[in-house]
Amino acid sequence: MADYKTGELLKQINIPQDLRDKILEDDLPQLCNELRDFIIDVVSQQGGHFGASLGVVELTVALHYVFNTPDDKLVWDVGHQAYGHKILTGRREQFHTNRLYKGISGFPKPSESEYDTFAVGHSSTSISAALGMAVADNIKKEKRQHVAIIGDGSMTAGLAFEGMNHGGVENTNLLVILNDNCMAIDPNVGALKEYLTDITTSHTYNKVKDEVWHLLGKMSKFGPNAQAIVQKIENGIKSTILKQSNLFESLNFRYFGPVDGHDVNYLTKVLEDLKDIPGPKILHCITEKGKGYQPAEDGDSTQWHAPGLFNKDTGEIIKITPKSPEPPKYQDVFGHTIVELAEKNKKIVGVTPAMPSGCSLNIMMEAMPDRSFDVGIAEQHAVTFSAGMAAQGLIPFCNIYSSFMQRAYDQVIHDVALQKLPVVFCLDRGGLVGADGATHHGAYDLAYLRAIPNMIVSAPMNEEELRNLMYTAQTEEQKGPFSIRYPRGKGVMIDWKKPFKKLKIGTGRRIKIGVDLAILSIGAIGNEAIKAIKELERDGVSVAHYDMRFVKPIDEILLHEVFGKFTKVITLEDGCLMGGMGSAIIEFMADHHYHAEVVRLGIPDEFIEHGTQSELYKECCYDAEAIVKTSKSLINKENKALA
Fold first, then answer.
1. Domain ranges within the chain, ordered by starting residue
2. Which of 34, 58, 379, 465 is catalytic?
3. Catalytic site residue 379?
4. Treating both helix axes as pointing N-terminal to C-terminal, what angle do 556-565 and 581-591 enclose, rounded to 10 degrees?
5. pLDDT tens per residue, range 199-237
6. What torsion do the CA atoms of 44, 45, 47, 52 make, to the nearest 10 degrees?
7. pLDDT tens across 427-455, in order?
8. Which of 2.60.40.290, 3.40.50.300, 2.40.50.100, 3.40.50.970 is the CATH number of 330-485?
9. Choice among 36, 254, 371, 407 that is catalytic
């Protein structure tokens, strides 16, 4: 392992049992300091999610100190807060490989460790998953504790409330820990945030809640009737002080808190008490993102969510200044273009589910706050909310990461496509996204959207094409839903801000003429084909290249041209091969009785792990090198057949 700062207490812990056996309770604060220093040391040099994991150091230590993990089940919500958990559960020596190709995952992953009880990556799953585990143990007559650790940002998703609604009527040892730091990636929004703020700032409530808690604990020893009476008293006090009924207790969860999430000794006492109280419970912990690292505490919390590499001594984020101008990120092209379009078209509005900085809708939110909406982590609501505005004549640009759009598939079909409403879906992070891995790869959108009637499915090859597709999607002639997917990261054009051009729906374009074989690509991965074709030409292979631009409707005139000229065809997409663009082209070939050898390049029928995008393109065999190899194989096969 590289030389990272490892404290004397942390060195003793290889598994949580070491924590429980070797560390005295009085030494827990020092252990937290050492764990925090280790995270800072590694992430500053290797990158990764930072602020959230620092914010739950004390909570992580307390959980593993009190609960008998892995027998007791800890279910983390998203992986941003689980770095300390990974370090304490046998992965300290491997932690420097976090999010690197063939290294450990940045998110909890059961195949990686028995302490990772449930695979996470998308938010708001912990309560439902932990409840399912608890009910399963009831059925099996097994007794253990089940703890869901959910961030306040994740509480905005409907799934969290669905889990609580069910959990409140099940007799399980389910403890939900609400990690309240007022942040997801961007600051939290909505009524729930205001409600939690009311609880945390009510001095009168905080003054009496400890006394009520202790009384409840003492009275519960005298039987269920006494416990029920005291609980009613407690509920009444909470309702009176807060001038409203407690949201969580209305769902039949006993509410405790708020408590200081950075007092590890107090947290251990609280958790020990809660272990002995039966039924569904919620503990409200107040934490601070970036706690213990002054630059993160004082700086922009969004920036310190995942800051990249930085100088741990000064807090200066390391930025490599390019020697010459670089292309912009696709997300920034979206952000600037939607403002440009909205200035001309008053019907345009912007919507995102808790990712304004991630998708660059924050540019519009700053310029036009009354026409842009962050709805919280609530993809289903984002889609139907957009549909409602579209039904009243507006043109919503609903920007959702490709992998997160999967959560709103029913709403896309039922609430948008069925009614043929003009919602423009801008799917950021289409294709393989890199270090976030399998939970975040946008592998399936081309396939799952092309199956929907009334849906236009498109992907730009470069920044200019993205602007033109966005322009085309908001024109008066365009009446139904329109999907535009683009990848994570930088584009390929320096001079990208060109006058808008309206595109004809369902038309591709011929980029290059050739005679030996044809490559049909969709989206930005077509730039890998351009690299490959240059190498092939040097070796005397003449390749025609077509940018399909639309998967649905697909350009049939162009395809008739291709299959009328070529018997060797390669399809190229940064998406799943099952049902994707290559499948659509083979369907066309079969329907029109063409005969050609078609090789499809794209994401195979398996979940792809994490690594850089270029590493993953290579692994999946559709980078420039693989395209060259496939092309030569096709040509050589034909030559051998002729010989």
1. 8-207+252-295, 330-485, 509-642
2. 379
3. yes
4. 70
5. 554 444 444 454 554 555 555 554 555 545 555 555 554
6. -30
7. 999 999 999 999 999 999 999 999 999 99
8. 3.40.50.970
9. 407
